[in-house]
Amino acid sequence: MALPSDMRPKLARGIRLQFDAARDQWVLQAPERVLVLDEIAAEVLQRCTGEADIAAIVASLAEAFEAEPGEIAADVDELLTGLIEKRIVAT
Amino acid sequence: MTEMRSKPASTVSGGVPDLAPEQLPLPVRPVSPSVEPPLAALLELTHRCPLQCPYCSNPLEMDRVQAELTTEEWCRVISELAMLGALQVHFSGGEPTVRQDLVDLVRHAREVGFYTNLITSGAAITRPRFLALIDAGLDHVQLSFQDAEPNSAVRISHVPNIQEKKLAFAGWVRESGTPLTVNAVIHRQNIDHIDAMIDLAVKLHANRLEVAHVQYYGWALANRAALMPSRAQLEFVTERVMDARERYRGKLVIDYVVPDYYAHQPKACMGGWGRQFLNITPSGKVLPCHAAETIPGMTFPSVREQPLADIWAHAEAFQRFRGTDWMPEPCRGCDQREIDWGGCRCQALAITGDAAAADPACAKSSWHAAMQEIAATASDASSQTDFRYRRMAAAPKH
Lengths: 91, 398
Fold this sequence. Notes:
The complex is a heterodimer of chains A (91) and B (398).
Chain A: E1 10-11, E2 16-20, E3 25-30, E4 33-37, H1 39-46, H2 54-65, H3 69-85, E5 89-90
Antiparallel strand pairs in A: 1-5, 2-3, 3-4
Helix pairs in contact in A: 2-3
Chain B: E1 2-5, E2 40-44, H1 71-84, E3 88-92, H2 102-111, E4 115-120, H3 127-135, E5 140-145, H4 150-157, H5 162-176, E6 180-186, H6 194-203, E7 208-213, H7 218-222, H8 224-227, H9 231-247, E8 253-257, E9 277-280, E10 286-287, H10 308-314, H11 316-319, H12 345-352, H13 368-380
Parallel strand pairs in B: 2-3, 2-9, 3-4, 4-5, 5-6, 6-7, 7-8
Antiparallel strand pairs in B: 9-10
């Protein structure tokens, strides 16, 4: 079940995207959790500002990585669905 | 994506395999060839607290107010932690809000990049001071509840009107939009109220609920016979928690910590000794875990005398059980040794008398049956309900 393409995801209150210089990686700071992001997840979440909708996020990533929008859309949907369930991303 | 707990994990248990948190390697650039930077620190700002919960994780011998680090000292320590690569600080105690400089400490921690967490009873702060903490950048609040039933909460905390104070505080948290974790500590004398505690977390709009069975160190060890649940009670709570997780999926995240005494695999206590966490006491001692001072023959360095980076990388107290070289059998040859890191040293000490023994929570420990026997005996002492309350001068004699 895909998320609607006009949804405008943003980080939930209390969640921060941060570059962790000591370990050279992007992390999500969350209540009593640190989530280490891979490169793609970091790129997706940097675009989750509450301004762009999912369609725009997918288009932007497809352009940046010269990738098939269909594949990107599936990855974005999977990532965000999991993070919404954990209340890390809000809609 | 890998997910790591940032809270010192006496509260993380591997007891029930399908509930065990994922143990994932932390890809890091070491500060010295074999030592990774810490992930988070528990700052015990004070041992002062208006509550007297009989399972308090503070040591039996508590620091007096005169011994507490000053504001300047705490700020320096927080800066040193950031330099070391830590990502989160948990302001704890005692009751951290009795420190009049808490707002300044939170502000400083945010300035140097930390994610800030307040671990509180909610019973010692006014609304204006709470709002000042939010203005200073506080990221998250963990609020403890002794019970959902007010009279029982009063009895356990030994504070009149405790529930009204907590409910008012929870309202301020919600009003401010700050994410809230409700921490419900479970034991024999409140275990039947589990459903009401879950309902309370939902009613308070908590994002997370931590259902944590008491872990038996310090004050809780002294009160074990009054607190230990039976295996049947444990199974009842586990089932209720699993059920609530399904019911509130997407609304309330429920973390669940089972008691070690009924486990078969040890928890990766603190994510491994000196591996991810450190604990700083009110007077500035640096500990690998909050109960480490129970281990005889160890000396713990102070932030007043040594740079934190030195302590983390080189102090004997941190090296003693770091990694796997210290391990005896059955840990040494076990394929879980880099998953559970040998379990909990303080528990090994409490049950076997030897802090370097395998954690008796492990089925491979020769003390495992003895530990289960202790649990059965303690939980059977149903006539034993009196608490030895946590008080500065009430430490039980050994």
